[in-house]
Amino acid sequence: MARIAKIEYFRVPPRWLFVKITDDTGVAGWGEASLEGHTQAVEGCLESWATRYVGLEADDIEHIWQLSYRGGFYRGGPVLMSALSGIDIALWDLKARKLNVPIYQLLGGKVRDKLRVYAWIGGDRPSDVEEQAKARIAQGFDAVKMNGTEDLGWLDSPRKLDECVERVKAVKALGLDAGVDFHGRVHKPMAKQLVAKLAPHEPLFVEEPLLSENIGGIKDLAGLSSVPIALGERLHSRWDVRPFMEAGCVDILQPDVSHVGGLSELRRIASMCETYDVALAPHCPLGPIALAACVQVDAVSANFVIQEMGLGIHYNLGSEDLKSYTKNPEIWDVEKGYINLPVGPGLGIEVDEGQVRSLSQNAKAWVSPTFSGPGKELREW
Description:
This is Mandelate racemase/muconate lactonizing enzyme C-terminal domain-containing protein. The chain has about 375 residues and is α/β, with parallel strands linked by helices. It has helices at about 40-50, 60-70, 80-100, 105, 130-140, 160-170, 190-200, 215-225, 240-245, 260-275, 290-300, 355-360, and strands at about 5-10, 15-25, 30, 115-120, 145, 175-180, 205, 230, 250-255, 280, 305-310, 340, 370, 380.
């Protein structure tokens, strides 16, 4: 049995955190522990584990997952689970590379050969989306997602909601399916109105119509409309997901492989969703390692429906993008709304380690934006 010899992590632009695990035979695997806006906290967790886990058997992925989750008394939450994600993904990549098979072969084998995908348009302050939508069509996409609104007060002018409806109408007129992300920035008095206004225009889904701590409000909204409700990026384990399944208030779950404890937990969450007839559409506005990890679970999950891609997302403009840091970026080419399932070993991507090490030098941690209202009160970003 090969043992873990070294755990390294690399902060890289635009806002990602990569993990490399090397065993004592020289085989390496890569993971992604990106937690937008909290890079330093995750790095602190990885630093403590990097020493503790050297010498453990690299094949014992589940043991290391349980040790990471249960071994420190306090468990769960975005920081610990994101650090665990980086470790877990890297161990799966390492193991599958040793066996020279894609990870999905170790998860039971694929149930599909290609995956439907969508990309972002509009940015944080959505404005004219028509030209961006046309650019996505030219790239091969047939579905997009956009932020519904700018920041809103708890009770704001209904006119601000009409602008969202017009943007959705413009995009759908081009023949695209459109998901609308409320981003948790719309509070219940406005969310009720916006869901109702959008319903006649048949959005693909509405995402995070309310913040996930407001499960009662989400359940109320689910009872008011037939529009599919999607959420999950701020849920960090199967235990976080369970109350939403039991409440019956989510139609599409969007767990983030870099926030839920990696491939191991994403696979378990996918199976949990299947038992409740809930679709799987993993959240992933992050880097190529995270997306490649999502793809491995998408490939084996019967309830998978669509995968988010961070290609050209507004966070990456003027910086590194999804096709950076890899030597085979062509695997992310989109044709008629789909990407082909990677066939290479491990994650199916070849990390450009030289670029990772070079651009990690003096890389700054990304800071989450904040929005303020007219009275300088903090609003949800």
